[in-house]
Amino acid sequence: MAVYFTFAIECYQEEDAVRLAERLRPHVIEAAGHKVPMARVWDSKKDELWYVWATPQGPGYSEFGYGEGLNETNVICAIVENLYGLISGNTGVRRAMCGYEGQDAFCDSYGGPNLDDLDTHDLVYDMMLGPPRPGAREFGASHYWNPPNPWYETESVPRYRLETEADADRIEVVTAAAFLNAEHTSHTEQFIVAGLRKAGVLTLSMVAEKRGEMVGHGAVSPVVLSDGSTGWYGLGPVSVLPEHQRLGIGSVLIREVLGRLREMGASGCVVLGDPRYYERFGFKVVPGLVLPGVPPEYFMALAFGAEMPQGSVAYHAAFDA
To answer: Which CATH number belongs to the domain containing residue 313 in this structure?
Structure first.
């Protein structure tokens, strides 16, 4: 008798879901000395988000010989932690839930997807919340029968907000520290942000805080296009303190400012950077759209329903700092 449970993994874009599903299908989980292959992995769209559904094969009573079935802590914890290790740090993943057939509403009687009644007690990963707190292993077994206490440290959950006048000095410190040892930088990013603010063209300036300390910042400013297209903006600089990097904070800052640009009615946004990183947010190289003096493969654009412009792009003079 094999007992099934399903991971529902929310992704921001279709390509994120397809890429993750391809990675999961051949995956084999090491759990309590047993190898647990994936029984089913598929992707689908719901409410403008893409989902990867991953169902490990078992464990079950006959497979592992446990009288308590899925209530066996070491097996469930091993499986949950193994899947967490695969999805954490993947900036295309928004959050992941885990449900046991017959116990959680988002799995139907066949272990398939049913997202009508999701709650935080289903969470095993959330980009906005950060890593699980120490001791969160207990989530893996306890939640199937009794919802556990929150698995994350609420005081360490990043908070994202627009800057205030009091933030300027701290933004300068965070920006300088973030780019101190970065590649391909002139180490003037903090002066760029200050120059944009002084000129009154810092369209969006968002900060990320943890435990009341600013740990990240993202800036957006208008750009000028030679073909006369209007409503376009440039993303950057985006800064995260080195000790808080690779935790998804920069990705959330980017998604937050892009979302606000859409709400403002912007036509689109451009960015200069590594395509391997920025393509996950929808940016792409546009033939015929260039930033003079920059290799074309590193300059990308994202249109918010508008047509892609053509010609050259010019950032504000503050970028010459």
So the answer is: 3.40.630.30
27 with 167, same domain: the answer is: no
The answer, yes or no, to whether residue 106 has pLDDT greater than 50, is no
Distances (CA, A) of 10 to 87, 99, 197, 240: 10, 14, 36, 24
What's residue 81's pLDDT?
67
Which residues touch 75 (CB under 8 Å, ≥6 apart)? 31, 32, 34, 59, 64, 66
* pTM for the model: 0.62
Strands 232-240 and 268-272: parallel
Identify residue 143 by its one-letter amino acid code: H
Which domain, by its residues, includes 65?
A: 5-154
Q: Of 16-25, 95-104, 144-153, 304-313, which has the strongest mean pLDDT?
A: 304-313
Q: Do 174 and 313 lie in a common domain?
A: yes
Q: Are residues 215 and 311 in the same domain?
A: yes
Q: Are 252 and 246 in contact (CB under 8 A)?
A: no
One domain for residues 139 and 177? no
